[in-house]
Design goal:
The structure is a homodimer. Helix content of chain A is 66%, strand content 6%. By secondary structure, chain A is mostly helical.
Chain lengths: 432, 432
């Protein structure tokens, strides 16, 4: 797809799914995006936004007129519209809201009153609810006659009491198979899990995963039915959540590969800066032993091995602990068992590598004592790595700090400092 | 919950969801698991297995008699039963299969013929399909009269031709609202995405995510309908997939925090061993400059800074690239743009840190030249880190090797070797 052929591409583009169009916008070069968006402009499908990365959303939004945008947004389901509008600045929000049909506008504005990343923003308002005293027959008649006011396709009928509080749900297939005289109250599933509108989306994802839910009604603080969350809405949240852990552990604020160079550079700078401070601290430890190194230069050659093995063993433990915390497999109940276990694993691997590295170093520099020194330092550092790889994320979690964000820096500081100090300190004691 | 109170806990346990029981089994100490399982034994809910980690599944399986197990498995839906049985060894599989009712057994055995991690293993066979020439009325009668042979709750009616090939789907809510005389062929949704039974589950997860699917029919190579996958089955796959990237990048074969100490130690050993070889290689580079270090011991103090900054900047880039490859945001189409961008980002950050570190090092050791040397080495290493952070995973992906597994080792080898070589080499050239 190049500049010359973009106009004849119009025909092919018309048949594509919004997700594929979003991919196309993302993967063609920046200079072709303008013409491509012009091609899509006459009947811009706002669903494309749902599949675009954040930075490209902004690029596309800037190219569309507020009216075109409002027309496109009006076609979206309420949860998708909110998802799009919530990230805009106040001025842009106002412009789009003003151009929306009053009804859509009211729904979107109500949605925006819920906290960001809450169930209230995630839920769809398109649902079917009926009173608990209705019969199957009355429900069927209602569904047939009110078809226009109800969502096009739906899977569950929610049953509410006179205060609109949820008392249960009945899948459509079950309503259909019962005799008309059966009361809904007799066939409903009571054991459904409701979600408060202000619940954080990570908590929602946990509930869906924990109980294998397909859908869950969302209620206000008085238990009144507001909307419904289905598992497909939760898939994005689960994706984000897992990605968050991965990125934060590696010190990347976001993976948006379409972001501009300078933005990306700036966002990564701060993590590298913190790491620089850590590295300087480790250098400070080394400089305490300058004279020792000057006498035995082999120490300078070998010292990165101790630090690097500690860092790697610690990262293994840390990753497991951070993930287990996120999946709620690691809790107060088993914390001490896990810490003890990881410290033990560190010590065993430390002992194994002490032998290997000790022999290699002893032969390399023809000095048995240097082998013994690096061996002991290895055991100490891998024990500390196992201990801190669990204690640091547990400690941060208890302080309500996201362990994925800060753990790596703390851990590598510890393994570098302990690694250099144990090795060089022992060398100064034993070899000098 | 301790030894003494476990018997009186029976009453409380009875009301718990299988997922919560699984959590309980996981989080109590190993010595209490036996009594707890005995408590659950009389009516063991096989759904608990679906929520247990792999290593604890085996522990629990070993405690149950084959007959108890078969009775529990017979209660499961076919996809859950397959998920449980597929991980057992051949002998255990046979024992359970022999004790299953013939019908369940046939379904499970058929499921096991599909490759591991394929759509065929993921799908459920509980679905409703009707011929395309039927009317709404005939369909409704069929659903009511054949209720016993059909799944209890279902959301879509699949429409098949005379060869049982899928031609479309109609949500139950839509069937119900139409007049009896309407033909299904006129109201079906044709634009549904079917999945081949042998398709890998990661590909399935990609389809669901890409197109926001709620369910998809699974077909054989001739297009005949075999089963259905719903989005809740895919949630686990998405979880696994994201977790896989995280773990592999950190060199952890699995996160199972309930695994025994020696198993875990062994599984982590090999990654650490590969890292040891890398570290020794880096030490080899340092030893080339032993005389230089002996003359200017400041080099030993400062050299870990260059290597560590390169490793961290490289890891940032690598994580973004591996994740983008997994999410299919990085492809042949934009590979070179992303590589160039990351190399540029590395160079810019390299220049910024060159100034900071150069000034710090120059002041610390009262030698401007040492500041200049470390500055240049920093730019070189962060440029290489950006370049290799993208080229390594791209190269592995092209060789059909999972980039998450091997990238980190290659990358840190490069940033360590380049970091030490650039810094010490320049120092030997300029300072000696």
């Amino acid at each position: 797809l190049d500049q010359g052929r973009i106009s004849e591409a119009g025909g092919k583009i018309a048949g594509l799914h919004a997700a594929d169009l979003a991919d196309l916008i993302e993967q063609i070069g920046p200079d072709l995006r303008g013409p491509l968006i012009d091609l899509l402009r006459p009947s811009f499908d706002a669903e494309i936004f749902a599949y675009l990365s954040q930075s490209l959303r902004e690029v596309v939004l800037d190219q569309l007129e507020p009216k075109e945008l409002a027309a496109a947004v009006a076609e979206l389901e309420s949860d998708d519209a909110i998802d799009l509008i919530e990230d805009l600045d106040a001025h842009q929000q106002r412009e789009i809201l003003d151009n929306l049909p009053p009804e859509t506008r009211a729904v979107v504005e109500e949605g925006l009153t819920f906290p960001e990343d809450s169930a209230g923003r995630l839920m769809s308002r398109d649902l079917v609810s009926v009173p608990q005293f209705w019969t199957v027959g009355k429900t069927l008649d209602y569904l047939r006659t009110e078809a226009d006011a109800l969502p096009e396709d739906f899977y569950d009928v929610f049953i509410v009491d006179s205060m609109r509080r949820v008392v249960g749900a009945v899948p459509v297939s079950r309503v259909m198979r019962q005799k008309r005289s059966v009361r809904l109250a007799d066939i409903l599933t009571e054991d459904i899990r409701t979600v408060q509108a202000i619940t954080d989306q990570e908590e929602v994802a946990f509930l869906f995963r924990q109980y294998g839910l397909v859908s869950a009604p969302v209620v206000d603080s008085a238990g009144r039915l507001l909307g419904v969350i289905t598992v497909d809405d939760v898939v994005d949240v689960i994706d984000e959540e897992a990605e968050d852990d991965l990125l934060k552990l590696s010190g990347v604020p976001d993976t948006d590969i379409y972001r501009a160079v300078l933005d990306t550079t700036r966002s990564r700078f701060s993590w590298l800066f913190v790491n620089l401070l850590t590295a300087i601290l480790a250098s400070g430890v080394i400089s305490m032993f300058e004279t020792t190194i000057q006498h035995i230069v082999a120490l300078a050659v070998l010292m990165p091995i101790v630090a690097s093995m500690g860092g790697n063993a610690g990262t293994q433990t840390l990753t497991v602990a951070v993930r287990a915390l996120a999946m709620r497999e690691l809790s107060e109940a088993n914390a001490m068992r896990v810490v003890a276990k990881e410290a033990l694993i560190g010590t065993i691997n430390g002992a194994l590598f002490a032998v290997i590295v000790g022999v290699v170093a002893g032969l390399w520099f023809e000095d048995r004592l240097i082998g013994i020194v690096i061996g002991i330092a290895m055991i100490v550092n891998l024990f500390i790595a196992g201990l801190c790889g669990t204690l640091i994320p547990l400690g941060l979690a208890r302080l309500k700090i996201d362990p994925a964000v800060a753990s790596t820096v703390f851990l590598t500081t510890v393994t570098d400092v302990v690694g250099f100090f144990a090795f060089l300190g022992l060398a100064a004691l034993i070899l000098m």
